[in-house]
Amino acid sequence: MTQHYQPRFITFEGIDGAGKSTHIGFVADYLQQRGVTLVSSREPGGTSLGEKLRELLLHEKMHLETEALLMFASRREHIAQVIAPALERGEWVISDRFTDASFAYQGGGRGMDLGKMEALEAWVHPHLQPDLTFLFDVPLEVARARLDATRALDKFEQEQADFFADTRNEYLRRAAQFPGRFRIIDSTQSIADIQVQLAQLLDVLLEQSVATR
Ligand SMILES: Nc1ncnc2c1ncn2[C@@H]1O[C@H](COP(=O)(O)OP(=O)(O)O)[C@@H](O)[C@H]1O
Ligand SMILES: Cc1cn([C@H]2C[C@H](O)[C@@H](COP(=O)(O)OP(=O)(O)O)O2)c(=O)[nH]c1=O
């Protein structure tokens, strides 16, 4: 008998170089092998308009509030075109970043007023929150060394240590504020050990999501 699951929304967060992208494919495969139909997406981006906004956001200098507004504009389109329709079809959505990233980067890193951020969140998705958020957490030096070893850096990745310290602290503050949905992954572990931990956490969510019909 095929297993049916209630739809779930999973997000991946962490400072640049923490290892988030490395594990998204693993999570998608793990869930699909267990019968989950899912959509894998990312922010900023995830739609045709969102990908154009991503290009601007990652390469153009702009006012901090413009940056926050464009992140939420991309998110609004992403929810309307991708996230909400998939959940309504009964599918799962996994997204490489969501609103916690705006709190961490524009709020923590750039210092935007968190009250304004909360207002944007309440405006753009008053009733939608991830069911599960994996926060890939590493010391800044580890993340920086991984980035330097691998790729050309975009606008955010070129920021200094202070920026990432504040970004990481805001992520950890959000995790403490919403312990029900956040799972902090110690990303100094090996990739194999992280995958074991992810599989255990996904098994719990799968068990809680079995639909009886
Ligand atoms: N646990 C880990 N141990 C060692 N290297 C890792 C680990 N996780 C990721 N990496 C490497 O670090 C680099 C950045 O990882 P990536 O997943 O792209 O980070 P992010 O998406 O969080 O910015 C990649 O080269 C990746 O292979
Ligand atoms: C979603 C989001 C991302 N960002 C930033 C974080 C990242 O530095 C950047 C792009 O994210 P990411 O997809 O992690 O970049 P990469 O493909 O290089 O791993 O956008 C914000 O500043 N605010 C946001 O709300």
Folded structure, characterized:
By secondary structure, the protein is α/β, with parallel strands linked by helices. It has a single domain (9-208), classed as Rossmann fold, CATH 3.40.50.300. It is 56% helix and 12% strand. The chain has 8 helices and 5 strands, in the order βαβααβααβααβα. The chain has helices spanning 20-33, 48-59, 64-88, 99-109, 114-124, 140-150, 161-177, 191-209; strands at 9-13, 38-42, 92-96, 132-137, 182-186. Strands 2-3-1-4-5 form a 5-stranded parallel sheet, sandwiched between helices. α2 runs antiparallel to α3, α3 packs parallel to α5 (114-124) and α4 packs across α7. It starts with 8 loop residues before the first strand and ends with a helix. The relative contact order is 0.20. The mean pLDDT is 96. Bound molecules: adenosine-5'-diphosphate (ADP) and thymidine-5'-diphosphate (TYD). One of its GO terms (cellular component) is cytosol. Residues 12-195 form the Thymidylate kinase-like domain. Keywords: ATP-binding, Kinase, Nucleotide biosynthesis, Nucleotide-binding, Transferase. It comes from Janthinobacterium violaceinigrum. ATP binds at residues 14-21.
Count the beta strands. 5
Summing up helix and strand content along with how strands pair, one would put the structural category as alpha/beta
Query: What hetero molecules are in the model?
Result: adenosine-5'-diphosphate, thymidine-5'-diphosphate
| Beta-strand residue fraction | 5-15%
The CATH class, by name, is: Alpha Beta
Largest sheet: number of strands, sense, barrel closure? 5 strands, parallel
In the CATH hierarchy, the third-tier topology is known as: Rossmann fold
